[in-house]
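CORE FACILITY INTAKE
Project code: CF-77B
Contact: R.S. (postdoc)
Sample description: multi-component assembly, two entities in total
Requested service: structural model of the whole complex
Turnaround: standard
Below are the sequence entries exactly as provided by the requester. Do not edit them.
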Amino acid sequence: MNTMDRLPQIEKLETGIAGFDLIARGGLPKGRTTLISGTAGSAKTVIACQFLAEGIEKAGDSGVFITFEEPPDDIRQNMVGLGWDIQRWEAEGQWAFVDASPQPGAEAVVTGSYDLGALLARIEYAVRKVGATRVSMDSLGAIFTQFADSATVRSELFRIASALKAMGVTAVMTAERAQEYGDIARYGVEEFVADNVIILRNVLEQEKRRRTVEILKFRGTSHQKGEFPFTIMPGQGVIVIPLSAIELKQKSSNVRLSSGNEELDRMCGGGFFRDSIILVSGATGNGKTLMVTEFIAGGAANGERCLLFAFEESREQLFRNAEGWGIDFEQMEEEGRLKVVCEYPEVMGLEDHLIDMKTVIDEFKPNRMAVDSLSALERVSNIKGFREFVIGLTSFIKHEEIVGLFTATTPTLMGGTSVTEAHISTITDSIILLRYVEMYGEMRRGLTVLKMRGSMHDKDIREFTIDGQGMHIGKPFRNVTGILTGQPVHRAPAEIERIGELFQE
Amino acid sequence: MDKVLLKLYVTGQTPKTERAIANLRRICKEDLGGQYEMAVIDVLERPQLAEDERILATPTLIKTLPLPLRRVIGDLSDTEKVLLGLDVQPVRKGEEE
């Protein structure tokens, strides 16, 4: 028998913090202490509280909160907004505070050697009292400011960490760090509680705050690597968005759904796949919103539930536009087949948008959804954040087997690609390009299906027109080249025939 | 002179505990002229008392009367500092009689 068989694997304790257990591959190492380090305002206290709160709510685990910084009253009050009734839990014997916050006006004189034996005794007492299996300490730096002798504090904290281990509780300790990218923590605390280290960041990048969590190490057990964005939602607390941790295991479906336009269905080889993501790219006023409207109408006509997220136009505008094309959104909504969510992109960060959208999707359970437009959302984030958002959203809706139509606005009228496309084109299953084509002093509209994963599709660039009945896809542009690059060149039919003949046998 | 009420919080029977108790007895006898009441509390036996007083370090000496409340942390090896920390005037030898 070798050691592998004899030594049990390190067990994980599910924290219950949304998304976190996924990146931690099951949770925090059970019976051990994890250091959570972060700068000021990086949500250390929230996580420390949530670790206990989720334990009480989801697993029935009692917890002890040792506070070195904020008085318990402040914490009780601050956490109400996140939906945690600490006072009730205290009354029910599920939560106990050990108040080690500094007392105003009680500066103690120090003479001779001392230890933190009383603190340890209080912790042990509190753990026994509520039968705690989870312990949070927030935050270690504050105790160094209460006691001048940092060597003593250090060795005492080490003793407390060992005692926690002996008690068999799973603990988190928070610590401050001076910089987002630098030493792990102040006072070198990672040296004695270093089994597991998690880093929280709150980076200011291009005038936008971006919160991330990174598991730096879990000694003896595995975890996802790198930074993962997270957000704090009222009533829910921290939600980690485990983007790159999402596994590519969505089912693939051969069921086709109508795009809402017969001719477009034909071009796509029979319609969109049920769990595919379609990107519609085009310049402003080129018919993207019309395509979205027809997509929605097509779904509703088929008895599906449709969801529309609009980030550019108001409800009134959208409904009026649809009416102009002979589509009655209002009636669809009354019948419960449509839900329209209009929001300014600027009202919140992308992470929050993502969480909100997921919540709406979960509640409404649509068969198809559209986002008009993704480019508007791009404004409120940086490139990395935007890409993560798109991955997060697409993988989620694919998992739910929802067909998604996203629009992207190109910066130039005639051709070229948008930044949006450049970053998400590989994530989408199909790309439809809408382009203006200048022909003899007239702006005409062209459409092509550039990519259609898993299906044959029409390779032509087709002309389309818009009228009171919506979009009409017509003939291909046969005597024009260079439409997609934005420099259409007209060729006389004679020349085309001549070139055609060259390749005949 | 008002009677001084003192509480000494300790953890278990350690050399540090014994040192602190011995130092306190000496200070009380020599500098407070017997005008004191002293209680030793072992936080291992009475953790709730430590919780109520929010004691972190041991040994901790608390003077509850006369006000104001004062705290001294450590094994009380420096008498001058202890008296300063407790904010009490030492009784000079000879004044007693």
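Facility notes:
- Residues 11 and 43 of chain B are 5 Å apart (CA to CA).
- Helices of chain B lie at 15-31, 47-53, 79-86.
Invoice: internal transfer
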